[in-house]
Design goal:
Keywords: Membrane, Transmembrane, Transmembrane helix. The protein has 109 residues and is an all-alpha fold. The protein folds into two domains: 32 residues; 72 residues, no CATH class. It is built from four helices and no strands. The longest helix has 34 residues. It is extended. The mean pLDDT is 92.
Length: 109
């Protein structure tokens, strides 16, 4: 094991610590204000509902070259990936629309 491998493993550990801290700290801080947890839960439920709709819309077709090794893609996995992509596209469009509305609102004021 050379220096590059050690640095790579240390970076993996630091990323994992960062993810855990970024998830736990808002929860710890929101215990002072339980109403903020309700807003967060509503956001999570909204994204889950959006994913369910996107999953229902997504196609489960798999081309033969992706069904074989090394991909081994199944129709169910293809539909999940399609649902995730549609969800991301919708959220991206919503973010762009929010930016446009905010800028127009600033111009009007």
């Amino acid at each position: 094991m050379d220096t590059f491998d050690i640095i790579l493993y240390v970076s993996y550990i630091l990323i994992a610590i960062g993810v855990v801290v970024s998830l736990l700290m808002p929860l710890i801080n929101s215990l002072d204000n339980p109403k903020s947890l309700l807003k967060t839960a509503m956001g999570v439920v909204g994204v889950v509902i959006l994913f369910v709709i996107a999953y229902a819309i997504a196609d489960n077709e798999v081309l033969p070259r992706y069904a074989a090794a090394p991909f081994n893609l199944t129709p169910a996995l293809s539909q999940v990936v399609g649902g995730i992509l549609i969800t991301v596209y919708f959220l991206f469009g919503l973010a762009i629309l929010g930016i446009i509305v905010t800028e127009i609102n600033k111009i009007i004021k």
